[in-house]
Amino acid sequence: MRTVAQVAVNVFKESVRDKVLYNLVAFAVLLMAASYLIGQLTAGQDVKIIKDLGLAAIATFGLMIAIFIGIGLVWKEVERRSIYSLLAKPVSRAQFIVGKYCGLVLTLGVNIVVMVVAWYAVLAYMGTANTPGAASATDPAMLEAVALIFVELMLVTAVALFFSTFSSPFLSAGLTLGLWIVGHFNTDLRNFETVVDSPAAAWLARGLYYVLPNFGAFDVKYQVVHQLHVPASYLLSTALYGALYITLLVVAAVTVFSRRDFK
Amino acid sequence: MDAIRTEALSKHYPIGFWRPRPYVALHPLSLSVGQGEVFGFLGPNGAGKTTTLKLLMQLVFPTSGVAEILGKPVGDPATKRRIGYLPENPYFYDYLSAEELLTYFAGLFGYRAGDRLARAKALLDEVGIGAERRMPLRKYSKGMVQRVGIAQALINEPDVVFFDEPMSGLDPLGRREVRELILRLRSRGCTVFFSSHVLSDAEALCSRVAILAGGRMVAAGALADIRALDARGWDLVVHGLEPNVLEALIRQGRVTRSTDIGAGRYALELPLREEPHVLLSELAPSGVRLISVHPLRDSLEDFFVKQVSAAANDRGLEAR
User: Fold this and answer.
1) Closest chain A residue by Cα to residue B61
2) Which of B64, B210, B247, B265 has its CA 20 to 30 A from that of B221?
3) A1 in contact with B at a CB cutoff of 8 Å?
4) Residue-number span of the structural domain to which A14 is assigned
5) pLDDT, tens digit, 9 for 90 and up, residues B215-230
């Protein structure tokens, strides 16, 4: 466990040194500029727009980090051969993979925390103005959506990590992004039989629905922005679904990686 | 118990997409290295040295055979705590400084937080990395990275170290320092297994060597024994030899080659059967004086060339 933590901290250190956290500056600037512009342009919808924009920005920035760092996590180590000296130390391949994964999750977590703090600060500031929705500007229920975004990003990271154990970054990025997009339309696959006549196509679509990660399930942005109640059981079951999927992907990544020759 | 032992260890890589064929990177290799020995693993580029080291580090898995380090199969977690490894042309996390890298690695060996930095500093002193140890590694020259690589291989005070081309990228001073370091390791009782294609390194350091060519071990043993196999005569430099006497010696076949090197001196090559002291005692009365004498034998470079050309026919793609 200590080894995994050490590998993870090193991943976090890398992302800090590689200036990944600069995206936070971009996020803060985006939010502040948006709140200023919206204040000038719209009538009465300021808070809701900033809520929407904040959640979308957190999800998008997080997605970029998860994919673009995730795909290089293992590939870069193998390609540059830094893994040679590491694996000669008392570090198993499984510890390496899990450590890499935890390191990126840590990076994502820190990013999200900082983004959320900045976002709530902007909302709190807007809440002081006398606009519709100002009273619920800093509604803590929005954190439910953030929590599910975080689980979704952890899942995206696991997908990217899995692909990066055996394919190039370009291919991994394409596959991960493709899976993320398909995963957001997963519900359509389940209902495919209502639009096609072929039982085989419907059966295939249903199969894919069960196999592919259902990213759409993690999206409760609309509900929290419109102050609709999201049941705790839904949050919990979705988080468990994410945890199960992540575990399977990390185990698969370890399995693939444990057999690999570093030529 | 041997420090390192392999038995019929081999590695094939499949090449080709549709109909993969095995590329034999290493033919079955059996060798053993005793504890405390400095063992040279020699061969030209592409001989299979790095493949063998990767097999010993379990960076690649063998097609057949076994490999043991300190009596345990390679990859054994307890054994990993007792070994060090310098990869060929090493690359390390370039966003870290040398000090941070070594501290990180020391942590992986379970050193306490307070001891990690002390260990890192001591090793960086030993390999000659000065104030630049706090600079990110991306700013290091190749030779400096190599020195850091050697330091990280020693972070855990290993019992067995594996150096893949340790002199690579080093200037003459650096090479000498690494030689001295290897000798210090030997005096501490550490087993050193190093690969090199630079033969003078092995001549200066090794008790025994194995020579690889074309993925096969073509010779193994004490270096002197291997070279003696190919001793083929004597190389003399003499002063005061008369040209007519020299001509007579050449006619008799007692001198196979002569070169006038000026100032009354000749470099002579004698066949192996011609004992230099016999010839010199005959020539001494006419005022011939010996300047130097050396056994004339193949250098290891010559040995490589011979072995490589012999192995070349067997090399590479073999139908399964």
Assistant:
1) A261
2) B64
3) no
4) 2-258
5) 888 888 887 777 555 6
